[in-house]
C-alpha cells in the first residue's frame, strides 16, 4: 500500500465514521438529558485511585509497563495505547487518571531514551543522531494537535473515538510492517553483497585473498561519550523548542483557571495557533529555500535526514500529519508518536534517527500534558512516580538492548518491526476496551452523537 493508498484509506474510513455520527444525531430519539461522557480516555467518572501496595496487580503492571516502555520508546511511539488499558483493566484506575499516569510514563521513558540517544553517534554520518530540523518542523504542530485533540475528546462520542483509533492504528501498523519487510529485504541483499565482496578480495598481484582484513590507513577517530554528547546538542535549536514548550504550557495553565467557553478562554485557545504556525513556517521556509538553492546548483544532497523534496505540498503534508499525530495524542492520552514514528520512516529517515527524533519530540509533548495534569491533580503522585521510574529504566535498557541487537545482526529494520508491533497491540487493546464500553453505553441508553463542548466541560 503506497502513501496515496494509505491516505485514501484514512480519509474514507474517517469520513464514513463521522458521517455515521451525523446520521445517529438526526435519528436520535433518546433522552437528551442522559449521562454524557467526555471520551473513553478522558471521561468524567469519579476518581478511582488504588493504593500503591505490593500485589499481583502491581507486579503485572510493572512487567507490562517495562516492556511497553522499552518497545514504545525504541519504536518512537511512546506506548500510551498499552498503558491506558493496563492501568484501567489491571490496576483499576479510572480512565481519566489512567490517561494522566500514561503521560507520566511516556515522559519518563522518552526522557531516559533521549539521554541515551544523546550519547550515541549517528550510524552513518558526522551529524547529530537527533534531526533538529525535523524536530522544529513537527514539534509545534504536534503540540497544537494535542490541544485540538483534547477539545475534540469532549465533543466526540465514545464509540467514534474507538472507531477512529482502530482505523488509524491498523493502517499505520500495516504500513510500518510493510516498510519493515522492504527494509529487511534490502538489508539481506546488502549483507549478501558485502559477504561476496569479502570473499573475493584480490591484491595488486592478482592473488585471491579469502577473508582478508585490513586496518584503515587513517584510523577513525574514536570520540568519548562526552564529545558525542556535546556534538549531539544544538543549543540554539533546543532553546527554540524549549520556548515553544514554555509558551504552550503557560497558555494551558492560564486556560485551566478560566470558565470554559468564556471570551478569554477562546482567546488563549486561539493564541496557540499563531505560535505553532510561526515556528513551523520559519522552519518550513528555511527547508524550502535551501532545497530550491541546492536544486538550482545541481546539489542532490539531502538537507536533513528526510529524503523527500521539500516542496510546498510536502511541507503542507508534514504539517497535517503533525496536527493529526497531536490530535490522536490528545484523544488517546499518548505522546503523538503513533503518527510521527511511521511518518519519519515514510519520508526516508533511517530507523535509528527516526526513533531518536520521534522520542525527542514526544518528550516535549508528553511533559506538557504532565504539567497540566499535575496542576489539575489528575493522578496520585506515589503511583505516578513509581511507574515513571519503571519507564525510565525501561527506556534506557530498551534502547541499549535493541541497538546492541542491531549492531550484531546488522538489521535496523528491527526498530520498524517493533514500532509496527506496538501500534498493532495498541489497536487490539484500545479497540477491545472501546467496543466493550460502547456496548455498555448502548445498554445504558447514553448519548451516541456529538456532545456540546461548553456544557460537557
Overview of the structural elements:
With 457 residues, the chain is mostly helical. Helix content is 71%, strand content 1%. The protein has helices at 3-26, 56-75, 80-91, 95-117, 132-155, 158-199, 225-232, 235-256, 263-296, 312-332, 337-346, 351-375, 381-409, 413-443; strands at residues 201-202, 208-209. Strand 1 and strand 2 (208-209) form a beta hairpin. Helix 4 (95-117) crosses helix 13 and helix 6 (158-199) runs parallel beside helix 11. The radius of gyration is 23 Å and the shape is globular.
Topology overview:
Elements: H1 3-26, H2 56-75, H3 80-91, H4 95-117, H5 132-155, H6 158-199, E1 201-202, E2 208-209, H7 225-232, H8 235-256, H9 263-296, H10 312-332, H11 337-346, H12 351-375, H13 381-409, H14 413-443
Antiparallel strand pairs: 1-2
